[in-house]
Protein 1
Amino acid sequence: MTYVDDIPLYDLFVMRYKGLRLLLSKSAGRELIDIGIELSDCKKWLEYGYSAPRERSASMEEKWFDAGEKTYNIVIA
């Protein structure tokens, strides 16, 4: 049986995609704040977005997501 005290608090607020923690750089965080997007939106776009037409290295993944007339680009390494 798992008790609430056994779950580290920081794991409750960590976003993950394919088992990897999603962390923002300072510049990416500023851009998200400027356009009003949260990290949970980025996770959703990684799951439901479509692959970019250009190739990245094997350790990187790039997804695009259309919202209205804009296309957002998310790159994870």
Protein 2
Amino acid sequence: MKFEDVLHDIRDNLIRDYVSSGIIGLNGVHLSFDPAKPEKNGLLTAAELTDVLKDVMQLVNEVESGRLYYINLYTAKFKVFLFPIGSPPRFFCLLIIKTDGNVGKAILELERAAESLQQDMEHSCLV
């Protein structure tokens, strides 16, 4: 399955709550981005979140906290989830939902997507 197809499945399954999804790397590059509103800048989102990811990964390594399952950021307008892909993760699956969105369903969709993306990236030699 293509990266875009995985992101479209997330969007289709979370249509009421969905704001955006993407696949971003620790290098700041996004492999794919699927905003509900196409005018949103995926490059800027990926670049800004990369700084957060690098800081979190450094913290996880420094305190030897074990495997990172996902990262949550809650703001006044959005709930942001980042799921690692691979071990050690070089890419993350991003999902942004509305503040009143269903968190359990969002996590379930990301778990499914991360597994599928992991397999796709292994076949593409990206992880």
Protein 3
Amino acid sequence: MKKILLTLEAIKLTNDRLAITPDFHLLKSVKAQLNYILESFKQNTKPTDAEKDRITLGILAVRDFEVSDSEYADILEKVSYLYKHPEVDEI
């Protein structure tokens, strides 16, 4: 459940940023990945290695947001970690 709540918070923060810059392709990608992860968490499915490889939230967080928006980068990194480590329920 904590994974879901954290992911919902990340989606809210993404939507807030998209409201300011609706054409920012990177944020659209982040939102799509968060929605995919959310569905996975809701269904309690364990991602395959290929599915884990497709999720780039952690990389995007560090490369594109860590300096300019550390709060947002932090939550994206946490969601990414939780998705890629299904044995962990919270950070």
